[in-house]
Amino acid sequence: MNNQIVHTFIFNDVTSTVILGFSLPDLERLCFGFSLSQCLFICDANTLHIVNSIRGSEKVQRCVLPSGEKAKNWQSIEQIIESAVRAGIGRDGLFIGVGGGVVTDLAAFAAAIYMRGIGIRLISTTVLGMVDASVGGKTGFDFLGIKNLVGAFYPAEEIYMPLSVLCSLPCTEWKSGFAEIIKTGIIADTSILTILHDHLIDFYNQEQKERYLNQDWFQELLYRCISSKGKIVESDPEERGTQRALLNLGHTYGHALEAVAGLGNVSHGEAIAWGLSRACDLGAKLGITPTQRKEQINSILRQFGYCTTPTYPTPNYNPEAIMQAMYSDKKKKDGQLRFIIPTEESATIRSISSNEIDIVVSTIL
After folding, report:
1. Which letter, b or e, does each residue of 333-351 get, where b requires 16 or more Cβ atoms within 10 Å of its Cβ?
2. Confidence of residue 330 (pLDDT cuts 50, 70, 90)
3. In the predicted model, what is the mean pLDDT of residues 324-328?
């Protein structure tokens, strides 16, 4: 598979080009238009070897962050900014984020605030990053135990998605990414669910995963997810309307679970998958989600080994704490919780009145 432009999106007059291919881009292409002395690689301990494998990368300064969700904090932003200052990066500089969603979110947010905004390009190295985190310009970090509380909209100019790096991705990261693929299939493209139904993914079979990378159905799966998210974000770049909000399906429940379990103790994808199931349950109880639709979604979630029970099997699980975390969610409006609820063909936004709170509670008991 040769590098090819999958799609060029326009987010608030910013052109963002996604390149899905098999191999890593070379340094000349990655830094095109910028002096090498004005470029800074931003990676973590898990993706440093990817940076080192780019021919000529030793000519470019790098900032190596701690790995994992617990590093998605202000201290990491300070580390990036300090590295940029020490490297002499000016307003005509470029940050290159290399990693999964944590690294790309941090790198892009730092680019947004450093000298009031410099260039940002990304190499996405996880399934979740390719189908969701790196596309659309949402950036930021966790604060006070609340997921993505601080952030900005700052789309990357170029996003490279080299499938070859997925060969070494742990099975837990594959599983985390497929939750966002299922979400996209629910809200935007039912053919994604058909592909998933036809191809049972064995996350724990390394040889089989490597074969996926060269198969047309897998590449089409990624393409459809990237295209769907990009088109949604183009129509509503900063979530001022209702379209982009649909991408939050499963996230009100999921982010609350992540916060209660302790950020990083339950993977983002596992939490979102549980949130999808809980949103279906809530939708059914509110008369929004048809029973057949609920069963279809839960069946796919179970097929991929996700939890669909009302309570999540983590030591810190507590329904009262889940509800408290939901009320800290930035998606609430006028003091009311807002959920994205699956409908027969997509999803809809639903605010929860005070006399409906017990219904929400019943979905997590």
Report:
1. eeeebbbbbbeeeebbebe
2. confident
3. 92
Nearest alpha carbon to residue 323 among 345, 300, 285, 356: 356
Count of structural domains, the chain: 2
Active site residue ranges: 116, 138, 180, 229, 239, 244, 248, 251, 255, 268
Phi, psi of 107 (to 5 degrees): -60, -45
Q: At what angle do helices 216-235 and 171-187 cross, to 10 degrees?
A: 60
Q: What are the residue ranges of helices labelled H in 151-309? A: 171-187, 190-198, 206-212, 216-235, 251-261, 268-285, 291-303
For residue 130 the two structure tokens come to 């390719």
Pairing of strands 61-65, 138-143: unpaired
Condensed to tens digits (0 to 9), the pLDDT of residues 233-256 reads: 999 999 998 999 999 999 999 999
DSSP state of 130: I
CATH value at residue 272: 1.20.1090.10
Q: Are residues 51 and 177 in the same domain?
A: no
Please say whether the beta carbons of 145 and 265 come within 8 A. Answer: no
